[in-house]
Amino acid sequence: MSLIKLDEKFLGTELREKVDAKMSVAVEKLHSIQEKSCVGSEYTGWWDYPQIYGFNLVKDVQAYINSLDVAYDLVLVIGIGGSYLGTRAVSSAMQHSYQGLVNSDKPLISFLGHHLSETAMIEVLDLLDERQPIVNVISKSGTTTEPSVAFRVVRKYMEDRFGKDEASKRIIATTDKDKGALRQVSQDLGYKSFVVPDDIGGRYSVLSPVGIVPLALAKIDVEALMEGAHQVFNELKSGDLNNHPVLRYAAARNVAYESDKRIEILSYINPKLFYVVEWWKQLFGESEGKDGKGLFPAGLAYTTDLHSLGQYVQEGVRNLFETFIHFDDASTSHRGAVEQQLKVPVSESNVDQIGYLEGKRINDINYGAMVATKIAHFDGQVPCVEIQAPSLSEKTIGALFAFFETACAVSCLMLDVNPFDQPGVEAYKKNLFGLMGKPGFEDLGQELKTRL
Ligand SMILES: O=P(O)(O)OC[C@H]1O[C@](O)(CO)[C@@H](O)[C@@H]1O
User: Structure pTM?
Assistant: First the structure.
């Protein structure tokens, strides 16, 4: 039985039949990934990564962390896109939302290098002042502008505060095994370093050292994360693949696209999943949005967004396909791993007119709102599927990573696009080089300035 399930009831009969008819193609595309015969096959190192490398990686990283001779209470992750989103997805979901303000034996985790906001950088420097930081700078290419700028700022801060020797013990680099400026800097300054595998692109890299090192530093259960992913990859190696939720989700997206849907909304009812959805947006956006094709990946937080964008989803342009994501019973306390429940209190007066909810768990009301929304959206011509996972944990998030990575690659192949490149991202990067005067981009810079 699959760890993650897919409910297709509200896809509608017509689309469900179309999904059935697509399943042989989905299975064939999965096999082309497994056999490394698909387009972009040189970047399929994420497939089955837990079994091949992941569990050993976890042991190596834990051994390294146990051998650290600096104390820390803050992990600062510097990276952008696939070099930070997976880590942020897991840490936001698993740590207390007010980590740092409530009692906890776990370090705070913070992020930089994913923007160019001076104010936000200054605020992170303020935070570093309050803490004993350890820094993990992560860039596969080692040359991305945003993390390079942030790292230069933080490196100076660390060297000024701790001196070069101790700073080099508090900085860990994760980058290409031999290419790029970050590899050079870490060799020159003696940083501990980890390698981003050649055959894994940024957005598929969360289970590699890119995610495992910072998450382990933050004392998150990375072995369980790996175990969850391993379980899903294993499920996809045999059995009745025609009915496997990963492939049915990929086929449902494809069928929705062919039925003129152009936007996929990933809806969630637990605010702690915000960055899981941000991770998903990069995964599908960079993988599928090319050659003039692809569903635009959007995220909606319910019930919050029902009071802002809900009107559009119900009655705006009918080009939407919606995927709901639901974890069973997500109320475990992140302070002590003790199951906690919260019910609507009984009240003598019913002046607020919610007496009918007395004694009900908030979670049950929340799920009720999700089901109500799903039916309403289906009735408003938005075909919907629901991804159902066991209770929120490192293991289920790991399973979800494997679920979405595989579904994304299959979905792209069904659309005849390369799931593993992102040529379109270069356009803004080149323009920025031109406008900021990078050597070699002077002519482009001149030309752009005449257009301003
Ligand atoms: O790890 P790097 O090389 O800094 O790249 C970060 C991100 O930038 C991109 O190359 C472009 O957005 C992503 O694919 C990647 O996740």
Answer: 0.97
